[in-house]
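Sample intake — Polyamine aminopropyltransferase
Collected from: Aquicella siphonis
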Amino acid sequence: MVLAYCLITVTLSSFLLFLIQPLAAKALLPLFGGVPSVWNVCMVFFQGMLLLGYFYVYLTERFFTFQRQRLFHFVIGALSLSMLPILWKDIQPPAGIHPALDVLWLLLTKLALPLFIISTTAPLIQSWFAKTSHPHARDPYFLYSASNLGSLLALLGFPFLFEPLFGLQHLSRFWSATYMVFTAALLFSAIQCKGIAFSTPATAAPQTRVHWRQRMHWTLLSFAPASLLMAVTQYLTTDIMAVPLLWVLPLAIYLLAFIIAFSRHPVIRHTWMTKEQALFLIFPLICLSREIFTLPAWLLIMFHLSGFFALSMVCLGELSARRPDKSHLTEFYLWLSIGGFLGGLFNGLLAPQIFNGIYEYHLAFCLCILLRPAGTGQPLWRRSDYWMPLAIGMILILNYFLIVKNYSLYPAYDRFGFTRWIDLLVMISVVLVILDHDQRPLRFAANVAVLFIYAQFLPAVSHNTLLWQSRNFFGVSRVYNNPEFNLHFLMSGTTLHGAQRINLQPRFTRAATYYQPVQPIARLLGQEKPSLRIGIAGLGTGGISCQFRARDQVYFYEIDPVVVQIARTPSLFTYLRDCPPQGGITLGDARLNLAKTPARYFDAIIIDVFSSDAIPAHLFTREAISLYLQKITPDGLVMFNISSRHINLYAVLATLAQELNLQAYSYHSTPADDAFQAPSDWVILAYPDARLQQWMANLHWKKMDAPRPPLSWTDDYSNILQALK
């Protein structure tokens, strides 16, 4: 009976812990612009609470009797009930000094005590169970695998069952009710363990000594996959979309690796995975060394998650093989949680401050390889080990000077097929890395590092001069100069976010990059009114302001202060100097700030918001569009830039247009062979108007029909799978 109570308690605690993670992050995401960093900071908080919980168990096990520990624990548990129910309605971002600290503060005020109790449960129950006379009490680590099964149920159930079925607020109430059931199960487990432990105490086993070197190894083996988990999640959500599905898939794979590694009879043996790991790394290495972002989203997800699984399995398999006996159980979990917390802290808070680019994925990748078990009797490094990294480096340097130096900025100018040669030599380098992986982790890691250094510091386009690079909570911004076309252009992550030809008068010239469809719409609206009020979500370089007249009032809403700084620097871009927006620039989330404007204030609202290539989902929901409609005049319109490599929002907007009784029009811009232009996709939503319909037809905009099946997004649920290209 005691085993059943313990299994139920640890499963419920893990279920609650991993259900609240995507739930809380989804609730906070719209407050901070829908950027991927919100999830990383949430992960830092949850890992910090796990560390605090494990440290609490370690201390109370050492200094408290069972009776005193149980009493103290239930006092805290009773206090945690005072924070229920946990609801996320009408929360506002605090006016803090840094968005990451604001996220941490909101989580602390909402979840601190319940999450602390949940975080203590797995090691506490295992420690109590280990003191009983149950036949399995000698090796209670199997309860860790059982707790991870509850975690998997919560993670995989969230995007496919709980989120679409309940919605955000109802799911919060469900979580609060389940937490109360969990506290009752915890009480019964304590009673059962006490009864058995005092009636038939287990025979004490001799304790083994744990050295500091072993503790550091535990920490590194938990640090590396935790850091890699957050890095691969950020990599995918930056270019696809920050949504719960792409949060929980890597985390579920991470937990699956834990379950397999710590189970009594693992379905994948550690020795087999160590031997075959390199096969899982072929495609991730090709993608990372060639900086490939244009593959279909499902392929990118599959390639990177398969590599993540293989790297995590080897690290966690080593961790399981090096676990101590049960006398050091709580200490082992403490060091494991320290490593996990440090991995999260490095990725979530330190890396954005230390690096001006996203390099932590590559660092964690190399560290996981470095922690592979070496062959028996193999030295750490030999003189001959220099030759393979040098050979790979020479191939890539040759690739750079003979091929990349002659490769133009745009594929249309690649008349000699240089792209194919670049890909071929990179793939040869990857093959050499894979063939040279066996039993020499340091040499394997050095080979991979050479590939990554090439990808990061020898850019595929050598014609560009880097003028600006910075990173903050909202992403990485780079400004390049291309003398071939006399062009400055802004890159947000991996995506072009605006450009300007130097020494040209910007107003009323050809629209830059993807703004070609905006210019005729601006002229059309200007025919009817002497002055327009235009609200624009997303600043970029500010180039869109030059598509309107000097007497029009243009209001920008931008969440990233670095983007504002770049757009206001005349040595980089002069749009805001030459075409100053009369309405100014408001810093903060566009949807929150638009909600503060008067009703029927704008003649048009333009949604042009991206984080790298990802489009913030909270700006494309039914509630968001209803808000935009309240802010435009009866003859106004809402215009969306939906240009994305991975997400097709035509079906989403067409469905919402039908639900809200709106007219919907789409336009795909395919400019001529011109480096100043870029293809783009746009959608306009407006109230039914026969005159507007005729105007759209004259401008070659296509009327959109409702798709089959419909694809409606709300604040509670956004189905990304049906929107993938």
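Post-analysis note: The chain has 23 helices and twelve strands.
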